Amino acid sequence: MLFRELQKQTVCRWLLLGAAVASAIAIKSTIEPSFATPPSSLPNAPTSIVTKQSETQQNVTTGKIAIKPQFDEAENFSEGLALVRINSKYGYIDKNGKMVVKPQFDFADNFSDGLARVMINYQWGYIDKTGNFVIEPQFDVGDNFYEGLAIVKVGSKMSYIDKTGKVVIQRKFVYPQRFSEGLAAVKIGDKYGYIDKTGKVAIKPQFDDAGNFSGGMAIVGIGEFNLGYIDKTGKVVIKPQFNEAAPFQEGLAMVKIGSKYSYIDKNGKIVIQIEPYNGPNGEFSTGAAPFNEGLATVLVRSQWGSIDKTGKIIIEPQSEEPYLFSEGLAAVKIGSKWGYIDKTGKMIIQPQFDAAEKFSQGRARVKIGSKWGYITN
Q: Three-state SS for 303?
């Protein structure tokens, strides 16, 4: 669950929102890609429920606490460090809970490409893992580094910089996006195309929407509800026909036509179709998420379960929220508490946390009462 997405990620607007929380469906948002104002709190965080001290002590035997709950906010580990907040300032800890970079920033984000974007006095800069500034705060907006480049904004000017802070691509485009697989989607005039890392147009503007490349393919939109996929030459390889679409993951992509979710292969062939469920009281439910570690989460009878790549149900529906497998486990909500299941659906860590997130680099952040800490499996 990203808690500091200060820039509305400039992926295409229908893509899966909040993949880290295994969001139910790929939704086509109406929000134009833009840099957003820093939020004041963690978005999408489950409601906090006070946990008794005795329950906290029991956690040690079922979901071993590696770093005791003590942070007002906490992020997943990324590149060996995790972003945390104490009171109003942000810093970074290592996997032992040691404060490596003391809380001093007004806002901050995870490390990406070896650097982290941080804000001081409404100006963004970039630090290394010792907390030293590599690029001094000077930008009104600064995005994470991806493939060696980051989007920054000063006034109305948006540019791409390298890790020394040098501008390598000057502002020419509307809504520049992060580079992925060597290309970045940009809006030129009223259409989207793609540029390479020199700023040269690699795929001419011709689409009404465009997303990042993943597995050699990118989602593009022609018209309002016609989404398809192109290759890196700009050739349409799966014709625009979907109402919603998500990037290819593990060889399959989740799409929606009408009310039905399906999974397609890279030829556009439907290999799994998710039938909507009509409950006994007439309620209508349908939902799905992309494949991750060989399983995909789907909504069945108002609860979430998992299927394999043949469409077979592997984990019977049991969670109130969609979930995401990471390092072999997934956080699930049962009643008011969160625990962890394995890929057979077996409860490995009993529901006991007020909030729980995916495992990352051997640690998972959990919430007990009002504080966040980390467990190990």
A: strand
Helix then strand then coil, % of the chain, to nearest 5: 5, 50, 45
Sheet of strand 260-264, all strands in order from the earlier edge strand to the far edge: 244-245, 253-257, 260-264, 270-274
Please list the rounded mean pLDDT of every run of 10 residues in the chain (377 residues): 30 29 26 30 25 35 85 98 98 98 98 98 98 98 97 92 95 86 95 96 96 96 92 97 95 92 96 78 75 92 91 91 94 95 95 96 97 95
CB contact at 8 A, 325 and 19: no
**Which of 369, 375, 288 is CA-nearest to residue 51?**
369
Residue 138: alpha-carbon gap to chain centroid:
27
End-to-end CA gap in the chain:
19
> DSSP labels for 122-178?
TEEEEE-TTS-EEEEEEESEEPPPBTTBEEEEETTEEEEE-TTS-EEE-S-SBS---
Q: Which domains does the chain carry?
A: 19-33+175-284 (2.40.10.480), 49-71+293-377 (2.40.10.480), 75-172 (no CATH)
Supply the pLDDT for residue 21. 25
